[in-house]
Amino acid sequence: MGADGRVPMADASQAGGIRWSTTGRLEGTGSPGAGSNATLTDAAPVGTEYVDTAGTNGAWKWIKTSAGPGISKWAVTVGDTGWRDITALLGADFTGFVLVRRNTNLVDLRITQLRRSAGTSTTPITTLPTAFQSSSVPVYGRTYWNFQCYVAAATIAVTAYTGGGDYWAVCFSTGNAWPTSLPGNAA
Predict the structure, then answer these.
(1) Of 70, 76, 121, 182, which sits 20 to 30 A from 38 (CA to CA)?
(2) CA separation (Å) from 7 to 19, 23, 27, 37?
(3) Three-state secondary-structure class, residue 151
């Protein structure tokens, strides 16, 4: 492997039958395109793989998707935040538990023991952190007690009801950047 992360590849059209790859594999500690890694990763060609040996915020492997400097030019290809307890983000009218997990570009959301003391129809339950927001059309579902819940970008809402002890689980995609810090607490 060369110092720039490129590797020799078989190529019958080249003298000697080998050539250096145009992309490579880099590794370091922390996210690519940020901090001390910027010098190493900013000049890397599109298609270069970066391995974070520390798995910062659950991101282990990245790929460079566009030319230029900065973390926005990289996308996570192997990452898992683990379950995060974001119950503290529940709206004032609600009690219960909210867990969220991001695995590469899929977000799992679980709401359990949901109760509401007051509020109007489709009162927002909580707002998801940016890295965990839906990037597609709104995601609809039904809770155990058959009330409608939905995720629309940042907002999670439920149709009007009081009482309960309801639960809901949903999985959806996101195209948002990987979190630079993890929300809530490890669950």
Answers:
(1) 182
(2) 8, 8, 14, 20
(3) strand
| pTM for this model (two decimals) | 0.80
- Provide, for the chain, the percentages of residues in helix, strand and coil under a 3-state DSSP scheme, each rounded to the nearest 5: 10, 45, 40
Report DSSP letters for 1-58, one per residue: --TTSEEEEE-TTSGGGEEEEEEEEEEESS-TTSGGGHHHHTTPPTT-EEEETT-GGG
The average pLDDT across 122-148 equals: 74
What type of residue is 50?
Y
Percent of the chain with pLDDT over 90: 37
pLDDT-based confidence at residue 151 (cuts at 50, 70, 90): confident
Burial class (CB in 10 A: 0-12, 13-18, 19+), 107: buried
Strands 123-127, 106-116: parallel, antiparallel or unpaired by DSSP?
unpaired
